[in-house]
Amino acid sequence: MTPPTPLIAGNWKMNGTGQALVEARAIAAAATDAGVRLALCPPATLLERMSREVAGTKLEVGGQDCHAEASGAFTGDVSAEMLAEAGAQLVILGHSERRAGYGETDAAVAAKASAALRAGLEPIICVGETRAEREEGRALAVVTGQIRGSLPAELAGKAFTVAYEPVWAIGTGLTPTLEDITEVHHAIRATLMDMFGEAGAAPAILYGGSVKPGNAAEILALPEVGGALVGGASLKAADFLAIVAGAPKA
Ligand code: PGA
Q: What radius of gyration, in Å, describes the C-alpha atoms of the chain?
């Protein structure tokens, strides 16, 4: 099976108003020659404008979360169908900020992943251990447990992506060693193969957590790493494109 096309996705989190679309335009302009898939996941309020502005380019856009239901009495929530109508092709699910801040369980993430498929979106499903879990030697068990619990069976053969994001590396400037990233990515791949058979070889496994222009090239060069999920450094086109420049070309 051919290796998955690398994906470098930016997660803007709760950052960005209309003025920030200039960054998306600059990234879109560079997407054709990037040699990897590029995506930006802005706040829901910017999704439709961003997708209109980058239409016709190779920059993909995505949501940062969705509800499991298509519609209903869920004040403040956005459904996968709504994201798709706004122009999203992807959606980040199970980010640690949602798991920790909103009590999202593996089962809730799995239901959201099913919703994403129903709406024709490619889910980017996030997993990662806390600092305490790593120090207790439980990182692999935690991450593979999250994979088994957060990925519904119907993902088999569908387009989806996994992001390994150690909680302690997000927004902190800290990153695991290259050996630790490799070890966790291996464990994730083995779990995907166990769950989905041969189809488990297809999804890209991204690394996320303090990816910056200065460390991207060595992380992206690891054969097990199929791209990056980038938070803070995705807010400025210059930083994001410097990360992209470090990616091995597909
Ligand atoms: P960071 O965030 O790059 O700012 O560490 C990564 C993420 O939360 O996806």
A: 17
Indicate which residue's Cα is closest to atom 9 of ligand 1.
231
Q: How far apart (Å, rounded) are the C-alpha atoms in residues 229 and 249?
A: 17
Catalytic residue, chosen from 53, 95, 97, 104, is: 95
pTM: 0.97
* Domain edges within the chain: 64-245
Whether 124 is in the pocket of ligand 1, judged by its Cβ within 6 Å, is no
Q: Tens digits of per-residue pLDDT, 77-109?
A: 999 999 999 999 999 999 999 999 999 999 999
Class of the CATH domain delimited by 64-245 = alpha beta
45-73 pLDDT per residue, tens: 999 999 999 999 999 999 999 999 999 99
Please name which of 238, 196, 216, 212 lies closest in space to residue 27, comparing C-alpha atoms: 238
Close Cβ partners of 246 (under 8 Å, ≥ 6 residues apart): 213, 216, 217, 220
Contacts 24+ apart (CB under 8 A), 212-217: 212/239, 212/243, 213/239, 213/242, 213/243, 213/246, 215/175, 216/242, 216/243, 216/246, 216/247, 217/246, 217/247
Assess whether the C-beta atom of 10 lies below 6 angstroms from ligand 1: no
- What residue has token string 């040699």? 35
By most ligand atoms within 8 Å of CB, the mutation choice from 229, 234, 239, 240 for ligand 1 is 229
Work out the angle between the directed axes of helices 213-220 and 178-196 (0-180°, nearest 10). Answer: 50
